[in-house]
Predict the structure.
Amino acid sequence: MQKVLHTLTSESVSEGHPDKVCDYIADSILDAYLVVDPRSRVACEVLCKNDIVVLAGEITSNARVNHEEVVRRAVREIGYVDDREPFSVGTLRVCEFLSTQAADIARGVDAEQNACGEQGAGDQGMMFGYATDETPELMPLPILLAHRLTRGLAEDRRGGQYPWLRPDAKSQVSVVYDNGTPRHVSHMLVSTQHAPDVHQNEIREYVETYLAPRVLGSWFHPGIEVLVNPTGKFSQGGPSADCGVTGRKIIVDTYGGASRHGGGAFSGKDPSKVDRSGAYFCRYVARQLVKRGLAERAEIQVAYAIGRALPVSVKVDTFGTGDEAAARDLVAQFDSRPAAVIERLDLLQPIYRRTTNYGHFGKPGLPWEA
């Protein structure tokens, strides 16, 4: 067989990245409502900059939630606790611009009001799910390794062995494929926020001799071109240095560019929003195709119209790696109506803070990964 090489690069960001701070706050607020009222309708957007956290969106619920308390708890859990910095749990201010869900949307979503008598999709749009047999997690290797690097940075920061580590960080991993099979890692980039007095050489030594070998495992080798804090310094980070907004890391949240994306973000949205529940459902179905041997790679697309329960289209792509007709037959057996998806995956539970960081897919314990 002729050798066909290509390289796929994927990135990850840590929980302290400004955009992920916003995602985590949004999902923390969502979970706080679902704990009391599982039928809450939540669409919470967050912006963070300097000492300001802005909450905006629409929330309709029987629960009463202290938003400021939830925000401060989330920021403390991430690790922004130094009150000498502009963005810190002790100094931040919360501004709220929240209203209830529009009645016209509720009319299409709520089964009691919908003309068809069942729950309709909360919006229009198309969602994708993907699975591949190249890793045990059925995830693309580049995004999986990139997440391991940023998660490893967070673990080492919390462990205290490297006290100069700070919450904001990014990683990037390039994997060379031969005829669709991953062969080796060619490049690795780690940018981590650090204390002002630590030297660049110390950071590089930590990444090359401890972090990368530990988290990359058998994929680490001496031939990787390693880049560490390429500008030479990264002491200013987080929302103190950069503005964060929810929903700006949609490729980090999914498949790292290995699959198509419909454009919808996840965090801060209850499961009536098919941007979130539809994408989780598509991942669940794509996993079934790969696990049952009907494809080595599979991508599912589902498209919805607001207020309608049945999708307007369902598409299956096995990329020539399996029995596409059998795959289509299997996919047709799954009920993709919003209420059925929510019931199958048990999506009214307060599980969303667990999804925010290091990818919404490929992690154990989530119902769409079962």
Observations:
- The domain at 125-135+250-266+273-369 is CATH 3.30.300.10 (GMP Synthetase; Chain A, domain 3).
- The CA atoms of residues 134 and 352 lie 27 Å apart.
- The longest helix spans residues 18-36.
- The first strand starts at residue 5 and ends at 13.
